[in-house]
Structures
1.
Amino acid sequence: MHAESYLRPPLIQGNKTYLQITEDISRSVEAKPSRSWWIATTISAIVMTWGLICIAWTVWFGIGTWGLNRTIGWGWDITNFVWWIGIGHAGTLISAILLLFRQKWRTGVNRAAEAMTIFAVICAALFPVFHMGRVWLAFYNLPYPNTRGPLWPNFNSPLMWDVFAISTYFTVSLMFWYTGLIPDIATIRDRAKTKIAKWSYGLLSFGWVGSAKHWQRHEMLSLVLAGISTPLVLSVHTIVSFDFATSVIPGWHTTIFPPYFVAGAIFSGFAMVLTLMLITRKVLNLEEYITLDHIESMNKIIVLTGSIVGCAYLTELFTAWYSQNPYEQYAFANRALGPYWWSYWGMMTCNVISPQLFWVRKLRRSVWFTFFMSIVINCGMWFERFVIIVTSLHRDYVPSSWAMYSPTWVEISIYVGSIGLFFTAFLIFAKTMPVIAMAEIRHIMKTSGEAQKKAALAEHKHHGHDTHPLPNTN
Amino acid sequence: MKRYLLGLFDDDEVLLKAVDKIRAHDIKIHDVVTPFAVHGLDEKLGLRESKLHVGGFFVGLTGLAIAFSFMTWVFTSNWPIVFGGKPHFSFPAFIPIMFEFTVLSASIGMTVAFLALCHLYPGRFREPLDPRTTSHLFGMVFKITDETTQAEKERIAHLLREAGAVEVKEREMQKHY
């Protein structure tokens, strides 16, 4: 066990015991769904259904129902794809990278963030898949022995790399999430009162009882999965950025894209984690486990990644000017001053200026301000992808093919529907599974619990050392 | 019918000390069930270090070899196509998929190995020796056979209580635990 200074604010507030941790976190699973849960889930499910209808509409009538044209072949679909994939990045960052860095505060939010990753990747995958048009031929992407030669997909294409990156990312995230969930499902199973709950959680718990040998293997699995997920999560958005960076479109053909996209992905992912967790902690009364210090830590990551993104925007501008390449220079002048100026300035305001407000400690620790900012950042990151995709495409080298793009009702509905899908999935998850990793919270209780910290302080005083009061945790 | 003696503890530090005490008396601990990964428990029980990572490494290496050799075979001999005048064997362009496939193979391999080694699978319904051991109690498990005498049982129970167990009980299970 790692010793931790009593000066560090506790991560679990209130005088908790192992039993209380179990009860606090299982309560939401065991209680009857509340009225507000039913209302929220119904609304999300209706929105999702409308989105699915519009997807069916697209498949039936073809991509012509979207606002794309010969100049702008990628519009809202790829914008939404990159946006969702970016949101998915926070989950793996929290569970993998922060595990390697021994950031204990991740235990409060990792489970929900990993679930969010999985749902976000599903939402993301919808867009390129249905953008294919003849979606029933989507399996042509896979390298399987076929009767067309066999003719293989082009493994040199970044779009093909993306197929591998995203399917790997989804699979690994799913395994990481589920293996972590198994011990907690077993807890719910052993507390279950009804036959149906005992049976279903028994089925899902895979027969886990918490043997010493199993825990030892579980720890090893988590550690190695974290180790290999770390380069994986960085590679996924790097490869997404290659979709653009390896082309010759002005505004896309930039070597800064990989780090810039990865930082942007983490930035937007944390914003979405905050949006979800601020609601979840309130609705499920988990304020003692997802404390203001957790929120502050996430806001610090937002300042860091937001600043990296801001620097990247400015570097792009500088490089466009410094390159003396008229096409590159025009692309950037057109972004800021052309017909899509509003999206550029929306992006600049939401992503560059607003996260800098988090340098103020008071704002970092304000729940309402953080919630508001998390929405602003998600809007900003959506604008960013729109700016990169649409403004670069709509006026490239040949002025005779310049065009404008606006989404149709079908595209808008599919986007809104994907948000409905995301929230429906998250709400069902939050009701049926423990949203906080109980086993991991128990593990850090002795080092990071409030009662234990107070005891450590008392011990310290007892030995006649200088006394420092516990820092104010509010 | 399988029979087990179960000593329940409510604190992980007490449990770790108890493991030492019991083992010092040359009594075989069948298993220890805990609600979270208690660090140091595996060493105290004398468990071998997990080899899961070694397996993961070799499965990952196999994945890397498959990805590399498959793409090389496809583009140099099975169906060579010229993409933008680039060489058929365009190694740098293979790297992303080689990396992804390595990670995919290693993590699937390790997860499957983990589930298989622990005999965990959907539909394996297991009754815990005590339902509280997945929540807040730590259980030390001893096997009871027909040869186990009453005196022996009492001795273990006494040692458990002395070492800080909050509860000691016998359990009969339908299946082998």
2.
Amino acid sequence: MKEIAIDVNGLTKSFDGRTVVRDLSLEVPKGEIYGFLGPNGSGKTTTLRMLCGLLTPDSGEGTCLGYDIRIEADAIKRNVGYMTQRFSLYADLSIRENLEFVARVYGMPDPKGAASRAIARLGLTGRQDQLAGELSGGWKQRLALGACILPEPRLLLLDEPTAGVDPKARREFWDEIHGLAAEGITVLVSTHYMDEAERCHELAYIAFGELLAQGTAKEVVAQSGLSTWIVSGGDLHRLGAALQVRDGIDMVAPFGAELHVSGRDEAALDAAIKAAKNADGAHRWTRGAPSLEDVFILLMDEAKDNFA
Amino acid sequence: MMAASCQYSAGERRDPGFFRRMWAMVVKEFVQMRRDRMTFATMIIVPIMQLVLFGYAINTDPKQLPTAVLTRDDGPLTRAVLAAMKNTDYFDFRVQVRDPEELDRLVRSGEVQFAVEIPASFERDVRRGDRPSLLVIADATDPVATGTAVSALQGLIDTALRRELRGPDDTIAKTEAPFAITLQNRYNPEGITQYNIVPGLLGVVLTMTMMMFTALAVTREIERGTMESLLAMPIKPVEIMIGKIAPFVLVGFVQMTIILGAAHILFDVPIMGSVWLLVVLATLFAAANLAVGYTFSTLAENQLQAVQMTFFFFLPNILLSGFMFPFRGMPEWAQVIGELLPLTHFLRIVRGITLKGIGFADMQVDVLALVLFMLLAMGLALVRFRRTLD
């Protein structure tokens, strides 16, 4: 049996009568990178905060690393590294001073040594006296991650760690995360980027406070029952507008020089495409596989119909 | 859709002109002003507070000053003198004592502003024409508080005796002055204002700076977003509080040294009592103010509000503590408020130690008040401190 790092059931949280997270259950195996996806305001941050004791759930219960999230917040805090969405290290402290502070708060035996090792690991040895606030976005994220893993947590909760970071820095960031997972650290990471979602071992998709899909990227795509056609050719914008209104087509999304046309009902989609193809001979129509993004946008649209 | 909204080019837009742009700013400022309740309150409450405090509470001609009396002669003349003093409206005989030591203690501890001692066989000596003298001791720490009362003593002999010495002793009444009033201005005999103000300044500076430092402590972490990760770390509220207050105690210590040194070197303010006692109690006072500031910072939503709160607190501290205006000149309600402020108690301590040379025994109440104040503020801060982001 797989060891479970996060096991929560029926988490619900509302602010001023507005339910932000509704009856959310999550099971994250130890040592996995678990992607947490969903549109803005879907409750991802609130969920992460409930997991690390920063927010008290209105209802629901569960454990994080075997500690009760309601009553053992102190134990959870000692073993969890939480990286906030917004840069939350001290901008007016140097890189080294920030890391030493973290090491001291966690009661590490040799704060200076721990900070030095973290600095070396980050490749910041020459810049350790630079103020954290002066770093570029990508370096800030790396430093924040470095501060998170400094006290050797068993679980990392990363809240959109790569927002606004360039592709190269993002890739390095993810290499680092995979390295940590290989060492046995569990990582729960929220993101908007589909390429990042595909780098996760498992995914959960949350919208309007509800968990809509869960599983590996392949499973999530398969579960959706979505079929996709790819169209290429000229004036895709006008074609897209025309396709959108046809029965059997649930979603039309431009991808560069291509148009992804998807539908939940394969037969109905095929019929709609056939009709469209007959009316318009100027485009190339091929059967394709739905992307994760197609699936998520569809899920979001469905959720909107249900809750909004 | 996207394309359409981006089609404007700079040339198509007319220059809206100075007034329109300015008006846009005015509208925005008003909207923001309305959102910020605390600033709104400041606008209304500060003028009212100033008006009430300056208008009603402040009086530089304090009357009904507490006075202790020691009478070794109980004749009608004594009673006439005391009645005359009472009639000036400056002296309020609250305590009757039996020995001069008690009289000294009452003045030293600040329980009374004046002490009057009527010598034995006062009446007989007057009638014999021996011109005895009665002793009036004034606590002149604050020259403003005693000034007018002292000048009221001048015409006193005349009024007191005109009635009593009429008749057979009429001749005595007509002589120059049948008795003398010996005025002893204690603690600040020359009535040097700086002696009163400069030690008091120690309290004012500590109040203002200490409170401001910690008032920003928690709100700054919230505003900069660092609070979120701090709360996710295994650190307890009490550890955060003490950790934030402690460094400023040292700052207070430096300020203390500067002010006391300057008081001594530049203004020749004497330090009659124990410097060490003063340092210890000033540190306590600094800690109490740091705790108040920290409490504000847990109550305020942002740094601006925290600063506004310290200002609210600072204003009555300056006006009602006896720093600027004589404490005893204020009406009862203002004195009650004054007693609730830490600065009031510290002023008594610092003036007592520097000018009067009093020891711990004479200021236990004030020390206790400071300790209580500090613990209360810390307790409130810990209750108010949000451990979660709920």
